[in-house]
Amino acid sequence: MTTLPSSASSSPLSRQTLGQWAVDADELARAWRVLYDAQAPRLPWGQRLFALSSLFPARPSAWLLALEARLCALEGQVRRLGLALDDKAFAVAAQAPLLVHEDAYLFPSDTRW
Question: DSSP letters along 53-99, please?
Fold first, then answer.
């Protein structure tokens, strides 16, 4: 699972507030398709953020970090539950509360789609 580097946690933007940034389900799905393409190599965190900033050039950095946090939580949920992603899954993931546990972003355990 990808997590934000520890240097990001010491920035003025609190890791706990990333869940407050609204992310649209379509934007989440678009980012997922680009970053989690089975044909593409896995990118390190900095390159992932660069890719997201290229996909969404008008969005502020804090929003990009919030999107990355939701992608990380979604990745963990998919891995834990073996989910197949569809429109409903992206809609739920875009709206679900975002929790911080140690160095990982998670959705609450009762999040279902």
Answer: HHHSTTS-HHHHHHHHHHHHHHHHHHHHHTPPP-HHHHHHHHHS--E
